[in-house]
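Exercise (ungraded).
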Amino acid sequence: MGARRWLIRLTPYLLLAPGVLWLLVFYVYPSIQMFISSFWSGTLETGFTFSFDNWRTYADALDRYEPQFVRSLVYGGAATIICFLIAYPLAYAIAFRGGRYKNVLLFLVIAPFFTSFLLRTQSWKIILGDDGILFGPLKDAGFLPPEFRVLATPAAVIAGIAYNFLPFMTLPIYVSLEKLDIRLVEAARDLYAGPWRPGGIVAGIVVGALVGAGLAAAMSYDVVVMAAIGLVVGLVIGAFFVSESFLRVVLPLSLPGVFAGSLLTFIPAMGDFVNAQILGTSETRMIGNVIQSRFLQNNDYPTAAALSFILMAAILAMVAVYAKILGTEELTSAR
Amino acid sequence: MTDQKPLQIQQPDITRRQFIQGTTLVGFSAFLAACGTSGTGSPSASAAASPSAGASTEPSAPASVEPQSPSAELNFANWPLYIDTDDNDPTKHKTLEDFKAKYGTTVKYSEVINDNDEFFGTIRPALQAGQDTGWDLVVLTDWMAGRLVRLGWVEQFDLANMPNKVANMQDVYKGVDFDPTDDHHAPWQSGMTGLGFDSKVTGDLTSLEALWTPDPKWKGKVTFLTEMRDAVGLTLLKLGKDPSQATVEDGQAAVDEMQKAVDAGIVRAFTGNEYAEDLVSGNVVLAMAWSGDVIAKQAEKETLVWQLPDEGGMLWTDNMMIPKGAQHKYTAELMIDFVYDPKIAAQIAAWVNYVTPVKGAKEALAADDPDLAESPLIFPSDEVLAKVKIFKSLTEDEETTFNDAFSALIGN
């Protein structure tokens, strides 16, 4: 009897053990190792020595790589917004209009994941090639000037990131929409929740213009033009596609999915280096590129480790603020 | 300072640069002159009668006490486009099949090296921990080869297993500063860095100025190399300075000069071998380029040209080495010796179009393809050799300074 009680008490810990062990070996241990190496000084050939006096590595790294940090934040943020703009309608359509094709559509969302990340990014290089299958004919027909290009610009990097992380945004939103009780929407309609014309138009204009301007700034395109496009698109969506039942019932209930999706997209997007490497230039390099090359090419382990910690701290701080705004329970209660 | 670093070999006063400049070019041209006369007699006969070729094909009796036998497989890491490749099947390499026919060893050949530093980063943890890297044979550029030797991370060759290598290595390659006894490295190919361009778009270019003042239409279609010594070296030549004498100030001046091209929106990216694909697809029309790459890509795009710039170009050598703790050291030695057979060397040179380090390769090639044997890119003339420079052997401090300035330029 006593043994049985013990077993029952121990069960939760036993269930936790594999995960905890995993984290200890593959997260805690490397983190400590990295923390130590961030306080090293020296070179590969002379050997490294540890001293807390080397805290300056952090200050120097932050100072020297500020542009790359800012770029990671901007590109990661822009890609997350683009992912949201594409993923929400997509998830909505699959959840509410997918019918018997739901599973097929979901499969199609994940299908690109069956190919390697590198290959997927490389294929963008082929599609977006200066004289490639997309722009080649457009240039020949005179729609685009011959020097026009998307590759090797911030836009290519952001688009690449958005493409690669789209499923991470789509799936959580889909899950929260799919679980949504449709009777709540019907009830809202019964309670006179109709179209949302005036409010929708104003909100659409404001949000559309802001998003357009923000993305333009991130991609270094013309802010005014992009804001105008955003404004028009926002107006149309606000006027015709947003009802009061959506605003008051569907959207709030899907926020946990949006929250989880944007974290799953933003965190890896900020640390990504493959897209900037393949689709970008020396002017679009992100902090992930710096960490990678500091580690692997320059053998500058202290700086690389310090940069990794700064990145981790920055992401944690931003997630904390985001969670504060949207409410932490949204994350854990994602249904 | 140096006495605390047991791993670091004392640098002799004569650096490799001086050595190569002093003896090498003379020796190289002497050799070329020599084969110019002997090769013309009867090409087929000279190839067949090549003494070393005959000696190599006999499996030599093992000199050591323990008899050694070739292993079933050999893991060989090399750069892309760096070995003869079947036109129809890019996974087939005749040289490796010949090796298998002779020794029964399946060579697992991986084109994984795109950048010296990057590859070094992948093998470093294992080497540092004293473990096997998984590779039996790697090919790295001379300065990186020097670093590996200094760190004590390569196996010493048993020269008794490599009669071809001892007999056929060009004299110019002998006694480099990082390996005076020639038993830690074996040159794979040498090459030159210069201009690569699509002549259909750019016309003929001969000056490095083109990289800084291209036609406005090519803006954003120009690439520079991530290999610091190549990018800085070419820029120094453009500035009228000698890369073999580069000072720290020169390095900074070169970086500043490249920064101008970046700021002007001329430079699309800093690349490793990727520029070759981009030249073919048309994303890039002008690049700092390695001689053999461009020639190899001419098969896909005839209008590609590699040009030694008027101001001069860079010369470098990639070397085969056996990483410390390699599983199949003996077989790796056999492989090194195998590619020092002039016939095999000719077979590789004919495809990769880089400068071969093997004596007798020109005669062997002349038998099959007399035109190619005259290729100035595989067997460069004295004039060409007079115009190419080898980057200075940097001390560790200098290297750090150069790398830091260059890293800032390329966004690292």
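Further reading is listed at the end of the chapter. For now, observe: Chain B touches chain A at residues 4-5, 7-8, 115, 117-118, 120-122, 124, 147, 150-151, 216-217, 219-221, 262, 267-270, 281-283, 396, 400, 403, 407-412 (CB under 8 Å). The radius of gyration of chain B is 21 Å.
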